[in-house]
Amino acid sequence: MTEEQKQIVDTMKEISEMIESDQLPINQCPFSDLRTVYYCALCYPNDITRAESMAADYCKLLQTVASMGAKEELCQMLKLMIKSMEYEYEKRNYYEEQNILLKKRLEDEKNNHSIYDEIVEYYKADRINEKFLNEHTYQSLICVKEKGNIDLFKKISSEVYRKKLEQLKEKKVKKIVFFLKDSAEWSCEELYQKFSQTAEYDVSIVVAPFYAGTDKTIQDTYMDTIKYFEKRNFRTIGMYDIYQNRFKSWKEIGVPDIVFHLNPHYTAFRESSDICNFPLSILNVYIPYGIMTYGNVEQQFNQLSHMLYWKIFCETPLHKSMALKYADIGDYNVIYSGYVKMDSFLNLHTKNERKIWKIPSGVDSKNIKKIIYAPHWSVKDAFTGFGNFDKIYMQIYEYAKNNTKTTSWVFRPHPMLRAGVVQQGVFKSEEEYDNYLKMWNQLPNAQVIESGMYVDIFETSDAMILDSVSFLAEYLYMHKPMLFLARDRNTFNDFGKELVKVLYKVDGGDFDGIRRFIETVVMKKQDTMQKQRDNFFEEYLNYEKRNGMLASQYVYQYIDKQIHKQGENE
Questions:
Q1: pLDDT value at position 45?
Q2: Structural domain that includes position 400
């Protein structure tokens, strides 16, 4: 409803409440005014007479009921009248919105045809230049894909990238941005440093809100992410102005030459932060925020964003094969580099257990097993359906509480768990969920770590219990046991199907199975699947051995080489 319509409805409700509480005698009810507002609500553009008649008849009936002194019946009829008005207002607004949307779609369709004709004409005439790249967005390439064909899309995309690379070769300083929505998905520490250490590159981090979850979660995540990087002295730019409630344009924050994307779900970004609205003068690079195991291959390999990336640096040779198999454009833009985030795991830092793991007073840390509990957000009927948190969250907490002398815990929830458990009714509110986190933090042998990198957590742990999808492969770099909490809704891609064969598994609601894993595999060190995990690691995950270098070095060298080549584009 519009604000005006809402005010009318609120006034009607106030009249009804006043009559019900005897503040307004029923014989003083403003029937003529009620008739007018009801007529306005019913007023059909092509049937004004009918609206007048219905409003008059209903108000006459109200007057009759009032003359009989039937206050309760009058109030009931007023409430029905209010409901009818609300329905008419909402229906009218809906059709008006649909009409506007339809007109916009028709206009967009005309514009898209025009954009398509223009970009094809420019391509054929070899007129794609700096001015063209600055004035057009990636929506132009989308039009080519939708109105043309895949071959033409590839040819024009390649020409756009080639022209941009030619420009970059001549620029003294290249502006590079790492674009992300959450510190939890930060994976490019080493890569960021490599570009930062070269005077030729000007590097920064741009944070944009990601529209998944409640308004509070969205805003909190956005602000917390900015604070996280600012605190660590990264040059950090927020793309959203919370004071003016608007997105900043790329021109305002400085148009970059290359943007590293860590999240492909472009539909949850808005306005200038949506890749479709990026200018063509930006080369987009995608580094997956996790090692993809989930079975929805469309989301992982064939979103529109995947087609708009200049390059995708993938995790394993099998992921490149899956791109060829599942993406509309195949593996045309996919490069096997290994997983950049795992560089930190292959080049481990000095352990600092005491900062991470809470050890109760008087307990020898050598006798403590350090366990990560990492639940996924997709509980109950939520999309993907990996989460089992709703079945066991109190049992795991109670186990930690009752085993303070033998276990220490880090509770590492998925960033979207807060929204997921509220939306699915596991908790009534975010405040109730926060109280659960407080319970963990109050234990002498546990703490909650919701965001930031987790290299040190993994490195200093002894085991992990999880249904969080991306951690499944990442924790294999630790060569330590993990327990996957399975669910009948689990689906995996080609890589994931091979991965789960080398993991300990129990049903996500089977706490006895969880207890057996802790007490047998972790406590007694009876890790019978270690050899299988190690063999899997060597076959799929040891990219340093296969490429002869770490992934961040590979990506840096590849991009640097592309920029400095004589206009060629692989």
A1: 52
A2: 353-544
Looking at 49, 80, 98, the residue that finishes a domain is 98
In angstroms, what is the C-alpha Rg of the chain?
30
Name which residue leads in pLDDT, 33 or 513: 513
Cα 531 to Cα 186, 427, 521, distances in angstroms? 30, 40, 14
- Centre a 10 Å sphere on the Cβ of residue 73 and count the other Cβ atoms it contains: 13
3-state class of 293 per DSSP? coil
Position 570 in a domain: no
Same domain, 326 and 357: no
Q: Cβ distance 394 to 387 under 8 Å?
A: no
Q: Give the residue from 202, 272, 216 showing the smallest Cα distance to 239.
A: 272
Strand-pairing partners, residue 207, are 180, 238
190 lies in the same domain as 296: yes
Strand partners, 205: 178, 236
Q: List the CATH number of the domain containing 292.
A: 3.40.50
137 with 9, same domain? no
Closest to 66 (Cα-Cα) out of 81, 77, 80:
77
Contact 465, 374 (CB under 8 A): yes
pLDDT tens digit sequence for 355-397: 789 999 888 888 899 999 999 999 998 878 899 999 999 999 9
In this structure, are 237 and 200 located in the same domain? yes
Angle subtended at Cα 247 by Cα 245 and Cα 253, rounded to the nearest 5 degrees: 130
